[in-house]
Amino acid sequence: MTEIIQFPVTEREWTEAEVDHIQAEVYREVESEVCELDLMGEIVEGLIMECTSRDRKLERASFAVVKLANMLRDFKASYYKRWEPQP
């Protein structure tokens, strides 16, 4: 993601409620992208597991795909964990 959110310049301080509202909007906007990334990781992981070969390049690609799928799964889990109420 290469976009940076630019907050409008203002002379007053932002309230906590305003910041929370803006952050909630941002998280809602990226939620579908997070889920799509995780789904693509699962699909590719399943496809690469169907390939069998002793080719070193395929072995390395398989490792990378499985690692990426795991990273995406962990990222999605941590994304949703941030929404859980904190004690």
Question: What can you see in these coordinates?
Answer:
The chain is mostly helical and 87 residues long. The chain has a domain at 53-81. It has two helices and no strands. It has helices spanning 16-50, 56-81. The model has no long low-confidence stretch (mean pLDDT 79).
Q: Concise description?
A:
Helices cover 70% and strands 0% of the residues. By secondary structure, the protein is an all-alpha fold.
Q: How are the SSEs placed, and which strands pair?
A:
Layout: H1 16-50, H2 56-81
Helix pairs in contact: 1-2
The best one-word shape is elongated
What is the mean predicted local confidence, pLDDT? 79
Name the quaternary structure. single chain
> What value does the Rg take, in angstroms?
19 Å
Helix and strand run: HH
* Poorly predicted spans: none
- Helix percentage range: over 70%
Counted beta strands: 0
Strand content: under 5%
Structural class based on helices, strands and sheet pairing: mainly alpha
Distance between the termini: 31 Å
**Count of helices?**
2
Any key phrases for this structure?
single chain; 87 residues; mainly alpha; 2 helices; 70% helix; elongated
